[in-house]
Design a protein that fits this description.
- There is one protein chain.
- The protein is an alpha+beta fold.
- The protein has a 5-stranded mixed beta sheet with strand order 3-5-6-8-7.
- A hairpin with a 2-residue loop joins strand 1 and strand 2.
- Helix 1 runs antiparallel to helix 2.
- The longest helix has about 40 residues.
- The chain is globular, with a radius of gyration of 19 Å.
- The chain starts with a helix and ends in an 8-residue tail after the last strand.
- About 30% of the residues are buried.
- The model has no long low-confidence stretch (mean pLDDT about 80).
């Protein structure tokens, strides 16, 4: 009996150690992700745009921090519930631009995915919604932005749609934020599409829901 109890404690300790190592590994990868994003932004930044660049960088770091807070251990695996994570990021962005005339409608299904998808999805939400809030409603124009999340078979769809000024160029020239969003979409083997609405712009991420048991 004593031997069995010792084996049990040893097994629990081994699992705990493995979880800590996995968390540390994920944190290192996320920090590298932040560094890569900031380096990419540095190549797109002029001196006059330095203040805006710093604000954007801070928003990205907050989004990734939110992603980490929403990662949980479920049956020995990292998992994130996308709905609550997206809601928190949206609430943070809704406060930061101080746009009282722009309301945000949320429609979020309960979808859980592997923990390694959390930071890329968080960045995509931040970039697409932040872009809409910053550019879709010039001169204090009022409007509405819809953010939706739904599952379709073995994939999920994240949509950000505004009723603002629309695209000024056809085809649109991607800015830094959209470039980041597309890079993150590719990282999770997804696709980011953008289309004009009447009025406004529609952006959709479509990405597979990987098997949690295959988590790296």
């Amino acid at each position: 009996m004593a031997h069995s109890e010792t084996d049990g404690r040893s097994g629990a300790a081994d699992r705990a150690t493995a979880q800590v190592r996995e968390t540390e590994h994920r944190a290192k990868n996320t920090l590298q992700l932040i560094a890569s994003v900031l380096q990419l932004q540095d190549r797109h930044t002029t001196e006059d745009a330095g203040h805006r660049a710093l604000k954007s960088a801070a928003a990205r770091i907050r989004a990734i921090g939110t992603a980490h807070r929403h990662i949980s251990w479920i049956d020995g695996r990292e998992e994130v519930s996308l709905g609550p994570m997206i809601r928190e990021i949206v609430e943070d962005l809704a406060r930061s631009p101080a746009r009282p005339g722009v309301s945000i409608d949320l429609s979020l299904e309960a979808i859980a995915v592997r923990g390694d998808l959390a930071a890329p999805v968080a960045l995509i939400v931040g970039e697409t919604l932040g872009n809409a809030l910053a550019h879709a409603y010039p001169a204090g124009r009022a409007g509405r932005v819809g953010v939706s999340l739904q599952q379709t078979d073995a994939s999920f769809e994240l949509t950000v749609a505004d009723d603002g000024a629309g695209l000024t160029q056809d085809p649109p020239i991607p800015g830094f934020g959209l470039t980041v969003a597309r890079l993150m979409a590719r990282q999770i083997h997804g696709r980011l599409d953008m289309s004009p609405l009447a009025p406004g712009v529609w952006v959709m991420l479509t990405a597979p829901i990987p098997d949690a048991r295959a988590q790296a």
